[in-house]
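Reopening this ticket.

The earlier resolution said the output was attached, but the attachment link was broken on my side. Pasting everything inline this time so it's all in one place.
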Amino acid sequence: MPRNQEQNALVREARRKQILSAALSVYIRLGYHGADMDSVSEEAGLAKGLVYYYYKTKRVLFTELFTFMFDKGSEFSDALLEEAKGMEPVRQLMHYAYGMFCAGNDHPHMMQFYLRAPFDAVYVFGSERWAKGAGQSNALREAVAGIIEKGIEQGVIPPTNASAAANSFWTVFVANLFNYAKLIMGTKETHQNTAEVFHESVRFCFQGLGIRRDIWTYCLESVVNEKPEGSAAYEGL
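Inline output:
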């Protein structure tokens, strides 16, 4: 019995997600320049001709993948920042960091993508179109810098350049989270409990800001049972 239009649309959507998921796995292993449609079709378990039916070129495929991932990342980040509004600055930073940790814990591919993507985005989008993605990244750092500035005003963070501090905070956190993501990807298991791993992932971030240990550890303990729902945004890839 032939499928109706609605059923055909569902099949097409499922097939596109299957191909995008395969492209994400290939990209993490090989990068943009190392990836090709043969690798994607093999990963997806589909004929190469079918992959080309949905995506005429590698660049078209990866443009859709990058757009999806950047949009989801921006939505998730904005949601975390919105949830943290009204909290004390150190708790805001801890809430945001824990939300990102949980997303990376649930979806290790996600963090590995975001660490690779800045090096390849200009080739995928072109320099002009990539300006939007760079703007989203800058907006995130500015939001973190704003939280740090409030902490400085309230005396819980020693005086410093808030923008530079935000860059350092984010760089150290992402590096630690990336190492943990590699561990999960390699072993398929967690060797420590979540609270311990998160503690080690953020310890240098908060110490680097000069925040008293008793303050940041109290905030850590208060957020570890508040796992955000937003990490579900990456289900399916």
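Reporter confirms the inline version is readable. The chain has a mean pLDDT of 84. The CA atoms of residues 105 and 180 lie 8 Å apart.
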